[in-house]
Structure formats: structure tokens, C-alpha cells
Design a protein that fits this description.
Elements (H helix, E strand, L loop, with lengths): L6 E7 L6 E11 L2 E6 L30 E7 L5 E13 L1 H10 L6 E3 L14 E6 L24 E6 L7 H4 L2 E11 L5 E4 L11 E4 L6 E8 L2 E3 L2 E2 L3 E5 H14 L22 H4 E6 L2 E9 L2 E4 L1 H4 L5 E5 L10 E8 L9 E5 L20 E6 L10 E13 L2 E7 L11 E4 L5 E11 L4 E11 H14 L13 H7 L12
Antiparallel strand pairs: 1-2, 1-4, 2-3, 3-7, 4-5, 5-7, 6-13, 8-9, 8-11, 9-10, 10-15, 11-12, 12-15, 13-14, 16-17, 16-19, 17-18, 18-21, 19-20, 20-21, 22-23, 22-25, 23-24, 24-27, 25-26, 26-27
Length: about 500
């Protein structure tokens, strides 16, 4: 991002110094000067308490007791920082975002938001945003910040997030820091809800997500939650709310203040030239009884997944990811081969009763370069709700035994439900392997989504070719007979040595 991002830190101070907080903010207009931030920072000042978050309509400044002193901290043109007084116009809920949250992140999934050691953000506050007026920031030549509609976003598209970690705690060090990621998933009306794997920290709520465009970055969404947890698992994703959706819900409030919001210009995201490979088209949801995971289609009626996804003795259904404007259709399948529990390779082969229409098989990688950019596609985190998610990272390690790769490690965020999904080269679009697991430290009880393990496709490709030629599932039997070095690698175990805690 060549120009300074239109972001800031927001300070909230109670009367007489009682109560304080801070978050990030987005300078959306300089004529008049308006800052948008997340509303959760106002929670301690609500007259009716947390019950106000359940209201369907905007809250005026009178809803706070009393209205706290507000200021914004920005970078100065001559260097250093400047702090300007602000006043609250209103707290506004985004209805489309709230609806997408309720549908995509149901209570049964036990989602929570905030740092682990904190109680976390009240989920009812997530759809709320605050409009601030900053008169000293008015500029006669100013205008509205470049914007884009989240409706143009596509999974896997590059994003840049900007916010101030820890809010206003130490803006000299943390003001407007940047993080790169991709669009991981989308939900709601015109993509009101966006997940990205850009790594953000507490205090960046209210910051912005930008997409590249020919005339410079455009704001597309606002950070609603930086730390997202599903049960006890940190999922390593950041929750965003579409800026266009916030503006639609704020039209009445801003109109009452005499502010006219210019329409978001029609603009389509620039999609880089691709190799013609579409990993979303190879990815499928695999359900076996109450267990579900991901799978990779290698042929119109053949899928690879992990053994632990299909080991339940229950009917097996495979749902290929639906294309734009299409409905996902579940197909019955049967397991024709699964590795033994003693095998280090957690693999199962599934034959479908019907062919996947229009299926285009993936190209298969034959080399692995540590440090190359990769992505993982799978039904982790959001599961069935929003289709497959995409997370990006690098190939962090290639582990070889006797000169042959037997394990790939990546920095992509991998969650429960991703098992069996494809690992893809961002450069060539080729299938590099299938996801086996992320990492759990049994000593600390912590899960690390950004350290994960994949089975190289070079281990599986010769066996797949033999099976497709002969139709004999015994083509995969070699996966149960592997060298001790391979077994030790997948046990994450040094030999000789103490029992691994991973």
C-alpha cells in the first residue's frame, strides 16, 4: 500500500477518568470528517447494559451514561502523532451481518470472540458499529475514501488488513499495522460476512480490509473480531463485516445528520491470471454419520480423503462444492480402501455411485519447493454452512525419507473438518497433497492451526494410477507397509527419544 492507509486509533474515556478503552477506526470521509469504528468499546457505557445489543435500531448518544470523551489518534504529515477530539453520532447495527452470523455461526458450534484469557466480546455486539464526527479533520478538498462492494469478492482473493493492535495502548509503535491474507469464506446478502486469514490482534477491531484495484487499494470491509474461537480451538481467522452493508444500515442515521453517502462505484475485483485449475471444483464435503471432513476429487467418481473421516460404520455422502449459482448435491459413496490404523498414512479411497458432472481433474505436482506459496481448501471452521474455506501460507518444510518426500508442512490455517482437503500450489495451481491434521500440544492443551501436515501427492499418485488401470483396491496396500523412518516421521517422534507430546 503506497499511500498511508485511512485508518486511526480511537480512544474512549469515561467522565472523571472512570472507564476507558480503545480500538481501531477508519477515516471514511474528510468532508465532513467521519470515522467508523466497532461499537463494542462502548459496552461499559450503555444505560441498559448488554441488553441494548439486542435492539434492532440505532442507538443515539443519549443511550450512553454519560457519553464518554472520545478522540482519534492519527499519524501527522510531518511525522509523529496527533490526537483530535471526536463526538458520537450513533451506534448502528448491521442487520445483514447479524443475519449472516446467526445462520453461519450457530450457537451449537460454540463460537466465541476475543483473546483466550478474556471473557471475550459479547457476540450480540459483533454487528454494531459507531459513527464519530471529527470536526478538526475536515478538509475542504477532502472526499470519501475509495470503497468497493464485498459482493465482488471471491474466495482465495488477496486482502490487506490494517488496524492498531491493542487499540490506543501504544500508537507510537502499533498505529496502522498491516497484515496480508486472502478471502477465506463469505456469507450473507452480498457477502455481508467475510472471513480472512490475515492475522489481526485484539484492538484492531474497527480497522479496515482493503482489496487492490487499478487506481489503488479500496476499503471493502471492517474488522469485527480479531480472535475467533470454535469451542476450545483458535481458528486463526479474522471476522470482517462488509462496509457496503454497514453503509446501507447507516443511511438513515447519516441522513439525519445531513450527510449524503455517495454510492459505492461499480467495480469488479481484479482476479489474477490463473492456470485454469480451480481447487474449489476438486473439493468435497465428506459426511459419514455424525463425522464430517473434506475430500479431493481425482476423477468424476473417485475421491481421496482421510481414514478417520470415514471410519464410522454409517452411510457415506459426498457433496462436491457447488459452482456460482448452483446448488450443492450430495452423492452416495462407498469406501473401497482405507489404511490400517497402524499405518502412518491416514488415507481412504471413496468411489461415488454417480459421476460429478463437468468435473475437470486437477494437475498433480511432482516437485515441492520450501517457501513457495500454497493454499488449503476444505470444510474446516465453517463446515457445511458456507461451503469450503480457503487459507493461504507457505510450504514451510518438506520432510523426506530415503530421498523421497513423505510429509509436507505448511503455515496455512487448518481446522477440524479440513482433513482430506487439498493442498494447492498458488504458483501452478497443481494439487500437492491432502491435509492430514494440524498440531495439538497435549502438554499445553493447545491447537496450532498454522502448523499442519499433508501427505504428498507423489506418495499417492502411482497407487491411484494403478488402481484406475486395474480397478483393484489392493493397489493401495503399500500404504500399510512403510519403512520405520516414515512411521517415526508421522508419529512426530525422534528415535530413540522420549515420547512426543505432539
Amino acid at each position: 500500500m503506497a499511500a498511508a492507509p485511512p485508518c486511526c486509533a480511537v480512544r474512549v474515556r469515561g467522565a472523571g477518568g472512570g472507564g476507558h478503552g480503545g480500538c481501531s477506526g477508519l477515516v471514511l470521509s474528510r468532508r465532513p470528517a467521519l470515522v467508523l469504528c466497532h461499537a463494542a468499546v462502548f459496552a461499559p457505557f450503555l444505560r441498559a447494559g448488554p441488553a441494548d445489543w439486542a435492539r434492532p435500531a440505532a442507538l443515539p448518544p443519549a443511550a450512553l451514561r454519560p457519553c464518554p470523551r472520545l478522540s482519534v489518534v492519527l499519524g501527522a504529515e510531518a511525522g509523529g502523532l496527533r490526537e483530535l477530539d471526536a463526538r458520537l453520532l450513533a451506534l448502528v447495527p448491521c442487520a445483514a451481518f447479524r443475519q449472516a452470523l446467526e445462520r453461519g455461526l450457530g450457537r451449537a458450534e460454540r463460537w466465541r470472540f476475543g483473546a483466550d484469557e478474556e471473557a471475550g466480546t459479547d457476540p450480540r455486539a459483533l454487528p454494531w458499529f459507531a459513527w464519530l464526527r471529527v470536526p478538526a479533520l475536515d478538509a475542504a478538498e477532502g472526499g470519501w475514501t475509495r470503497r468497493a462492494s464485498a459482493g465482488c469478492l471471491r474466495k482465495g482473493q488477496a486482502l490487506l488488513a490494517c488496524g492498531s493492535p491493542f487499540g490506543d495502548l501504544c500508537p507510537e509503535l502499533f498505529l496502522n499495522t498491516l497484515s496480508r491474507g486472502v478471502v477465506s469464506n463469505l456469507a450473507g446478502e452480498e457477502n455481508a460476512l467475510v472471513f480472512t486469514d490475515a492475522r489481526c490482534l485484539p484492538g484492531t477491531e474497527g480497522g479496515a480490509a482493503f482489496v487492490p484495484s487499478p487506481d489503488g487499494p479500496r476499503v471493502v470491509a471492517v474488522i469485527a473480531a480479531s480472535f475467533c474461537w470454535k469451542g476450545a480451538e483458535w481458528v486463526g481467522l479474522t471476522l470482517l463485516c462488509s462496509l457496503a452493508a454497514i453503509l446501507r444500515c447507516s443511511a438513515g442515521v447519516l441522513s439525519e445528520a445531513g450527510i449524503v453517502v455517495p454510492p459505492v462505484p461499480a467495480w469488479v475485483a481484479a482476479v489474477p491470471a490463473s492456470s485454469g485449475q480451480d481447487p474449489l471444483g476438486w473439493t468435497a464435503l465428506v459426511e459419514c454419520g455424525a463425522i464430517w471432513g473434506s475430500g479431493v476429487l481425482l476423477a468424476p467418481r473417485m475421491l481421496l480423503t482421510c481414514r478417520h473421516v470415514v471410519e464410522a460404520r454409517a452411510p457415506l455422502h459426498v457433496t462436491p462444492a457447488a459452482g456460482p449459482g448452483q446448488d450443492a448435491a450430495a452423492l452416495r459413496g462407498r469406501v473401497v480402501f482405507a489404511t490400517e490404523e497402524s499405518s502412518p498414512f491416514d488415507v481412504a479411497v471413496v468411489e461415488l455411485e454417480e459421476s460429478v458432472p463437468g468435473f475437470v481433474p486437477p494437475c498433480l505436482a511432482d516437485t515441492f519447493l520450501p517457501g513457495e506459496e500454497v493454499s488449503v481448501v476444505g470444510f474446516g471452521a465453517l463446515g457445511r454452512a458456507c461451503g469450503p474455506s480457503v487459507t493461504a501460507g507457505v510450504l514451510s518444510a518438506v520432510v523426506a525419507v530415503a530421498g523421497r518426500p513423505v510429509m509436507l508442512q505448511t503455515t496455512c490455517a487448518v481446522h477440524g473438518g479440513s482433513s482430506g482437503g487439498p493442498l494447492v500450489s498458488s504458483r501452478s495451481g497443481c494439487l500437492m497433497g491432502i491435509v492430514a491434521s494440524n498440531t495439538r500440544d497435549t502438554g499445553a492443551g493447545a491447537t496450532y492451526p498454522h502448523l499442519n501436515f499433508c501427505i504428498p501427492i507423489t506418495v499417492l499418485q502411482p497407487l491411484v494410477a494403478r488402481y484406475r488401470r486395474t480397478g483393484d483396491p489392493h493397489a493401495f496396500a503399500g500404504l500399510n507397509r512403510v519403512a520405520e523412518g516414515v512411521r517415526a516421521t508421522w508419529q512426530l517422534q525422534q528415535r530413540p527419544g522420549p515420547l512426543s507430546k505432539l
